[in-house]
Amino acid sequence: MKTSDFFYDLPQELIAQTPIEPRDASRLMTLDKRTGETGHRHFYEIGELIQPGDCLILNDSRVLPARIYGVKEDTGAKVEFLLLENKGGGVWEVLCKPGKRAKEGSRFTFGDGLFTGQVMETKEDGGRLVSFSCEGDFFALLDKIGQMPLPPYIKEKLRDKERYQTVYSREPGSAAAPTAGLHFTPELLEKLKGKGVGLGYVTLHVGLGTFRPVSADRITDHKMHAEHYHMPASTAELINRTKEKGGRVIAVGTTSCRTIESVAQREGCFKESSGRTDIFIYPGYRFRGVDALITNFHLPESTLIMLVSALAGRENVLRAYEEAVRERYRFFSFGDAMFIR
């Protein structure tokens, strides 16, 4: 199967630049994975499509304000740092721009001396390992000076940092938001809970590689980036209980989907599990846990559109996307939603 099999034409003006208010006012396309039939609603009506006994699995990862600017100690040159992954002990994998100013051994100060960093290693892919040191809590200081790492297709400045966080985010570590969850409000989640819908949480820290287009001609030649995940025992128990009683396991976003399927693949069942996953889901994949998916509209030729095509069929998905373009849906991170059922 070729990467070009997942291309579609998207007018630039349909790429959402700002989040809609309120969160659940976004549009919602429904897609029947068996028949390809579509429907059109608003997200606040999602409760009409989810039954008592179903469960939602949500990614509670919180986006770091991961874009920071350092001043090189010996020259005063400014360098942009994008934090990608916490390696522990104050060491982070980062992207630097311009990279030529961030050679091994270079030292930088951030936020007028709030913390410092030293480049420890240059990786093969051009990234850096940087050791940061500060007095006080690193994440609290980062929250003071960091900027949200919005995707490059968003040109508008984000006025409220919390609008690039889900209302249930709590585990800091992502370089990008698990955007399918941005449509939920606390009130909507309580309404679903009151209806008898189970709510379970997993953590998958989203890396920027999620949004990179596949460069290989054949999708099987593409190498996925690895991301940290955790499924707590309570969520595993909810999935098992839902399955036993005939309910649907509904993943909120491709990150939750990848976590559920990674646990099933790694453990052979659903139980508490942590690790790193580079699972690549594309047509032909047999889903072991996920029955339905709430998701946004994804970039052409991306691993994400391949994942949703694995669940609903490539032809069904591309027809639905063409319809979404005709109906002027809003695309990508701040865009509208799709419920594949």
Give a brief outline of the structure.
This protein has 341 residues and is α/β, with parallel strands linked by helices. It contains six helices and 17 strands.
CA gyration radius, whole angstroms: 20 Å
Query: How are the strands ordered across the major sheet?
Result: 2-1-17-16-14-3-12-13-15
Continuous helix count: 6
CATH superfamily of the largest domain: QueA-like
Q: Under CATH, the topology of the largest domain is which?
A: QueA-like
H/E element order = EEEEEEEEEEHEHEEHEHEEHHE
* Average pLDDT number: 95
Unreliable residue runs? none
- CATH architecture descriptor text of the largest domain: 3-Layer(aba) Sandwich
Query: Based on CA inertia axes, which overall geometry fits?
Result: globular
Helical proportion, percent range: 10-25%
Largest sheet: 9 strands, mixed
Tally of distinct domains: 2
What fraction of residues sit in β-strands? Answer: 25-35%
- Label the structural class: alpha/beta
Number of strands: 17
* CATH top level label of the largest domain: Alpha Beta
Span between N and C termini? 24 Å
Description:
The protein is 19% helix and 28% strand. It has 6 helices and 17 strands. The model has no long low-confidence stretch (mean pLDDT 95). The protein folds into 2 domains: 3-63 and 160-340, QueA-like; 67-145, QueA-like (Thrombin, subunit H, Beta Barrel), CATH 2.40.10. The strands form 3 sheets. Strands 2-1-17-16-14-3-12-13-15 form a 9-stranded mixed beta sheet. Strands 5-6-7-10-9-8 form a 6-stranded antiparallel beta barrel. Strands 4-11 form a two-stranded parallel ribbon. It has helices spanning 138-145, 186-194, 233-244, 254-267, 303-312, 314-326, and strands spanning 27-31, 38-42, 55-59, 61-63, 67-72, 78-88, 91-97, 107-110, 115-122, 128-134, 171-174, 198-204, 227-231, 249-252, 273-277, 292-296, 337-340. It starts with 26 loop residues before the first strand and ends with a strand. Helix 5 (303-312) crosses helix 6. By secondary structure, it is of the alpha/beta class.
